Amino acid sequence: MLVVVVVVVVVLMLVVVVVLMLVVVVVLMLVVVVLMLMLVVVVVVVVVLMLVVVVVVVVVVVMEKIVEQMQHEETGVPVRTVKSFMTKIPSVFTGADLILWMLKNLDVEDQTEALHLAHLVAAHGYFFPIDDHVLSVKNDSTFYRFQTPYFWPSNCWEPENTDYAVYLCKRTMQNKARLELADYEAENLARLQKMFSRKWEFIFMQAEAQSKVDKKRDKLERKVLDSQERAFWDVHRPMPGCVNTTEIDIKKACRMNKPMKSSKHLAVGVAGGRISPSVSEADLTNPVESIKHDIDLLRTRVDRCNFKVSKAAESFISFWEQYQEYDPFITPTDPPSPWVSDCPDFWEVERVGREIPGKRVRRWAFSVQELLKDSVGKEQFIKFLEKEFSAENLMFLTAVQELKCLPQKDVHCKVQAIWDEYLSPNAPVPVNIDSSSMNMTKKNMTNRDRWTFEAAAAHLYHLMKSDSYSRYLRSEMYKEFLSGGRKKPCGGPWGVGLWSWRGVGVLRRRRLKGWNLSPEVSFS
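That's the Regulator of G-protein signaling 7 sequence above. Prediction below.
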């Protein structure tokens, strides 16, 4: 009996051992399969990464080949030195020339695709606008310049914050309008100065040394190098709201380079760049206090408005104080307004010629819009412009405003009439506008609409607002009206000033053409 029991036990033990061995074998096989799957995944990831790298390299090589073709002396984009009134703009080309070259030499379907490709190349800094921080391309007469190969992204630039600080500091030392810091650059400089306060003297010395070297260069060469350096930093420290083509996420960079965040990150981060200081010893030893401080700082930022209420209130109060005299609900008029009373004397007083109230004349000095809204003020301004031999500017602006109110069927004829009257080579009443506005107007004449003369009108309005209007306010004519010694003029809708022989001739020609000469045309 004992022997039987022993045999049974031995058999059971053998069965258990066999089962355990089978389980171990199965587990080992599963582990091997998992390891093989992981190896396959790793290989696939490596292959994908290699393919991505190869694609990026190919794209960069192709992009640089295209740029090299663009810079070819004979078959490339025409690069020239443009002469302006007092200066020269060296080594530039226009956006229209660039798009035309791409349509002729590259396999692009249409202008939209060419613009998209040009924008991508510009976003990587291979060419750039000479007077704008936004790296984009427009199909117009905007000037662009090629970047030097030294600053191309293929050189794997990783500029440090100290280099950016030296560059901004150097810009502040050069007293030139084209080198003035933009608002976001001034903010970055202030943050960098706070970040590198201990070694700012060394940064300043570097900037000073570079500035002295730059001053020894030729003037045109210095212009080109300054713009190329600015474009380099526009790529690596882009303006807020622009695409960062370096493709490094600031959040990921902070996580990889620092064990934790601190309040200093929030205080000195620079938009568009990888600017962030190292974690201090106090933050590492006492992380709870640091996090509490960060929470308090974030709450403060949430509660803070972008525009202070006190400033808004101050602006509203200033506007109210300026215009309260002219609001009949606040300051009663004499005679009372017929809109708020039953007394019709106001209409009779306005109809009969009388002295112009002083407060009405004072309102003309608020802005040129207030002057032109007032029919009497507009008449007097026309008389003043007649003396200055510039009345045609206001007449042109009036015609452009009338054009925007015409039916669509009359727009084409009115555009041609305005062109013949003011801008054509044989115009009877020519207006003086700059060359860029004239070129844009000529281009718009090929596709006439209500906004054909927008550039010319904006230029003349700016001149009238900044020059003629300010001289009118200083003139004896305005001072005489302000003293209350003049009566309301009686005459045609354009006042007495235009009823000279020259003005009568102009108005007669316009009436023959069916133009509306109502003075009630507002300018915005």
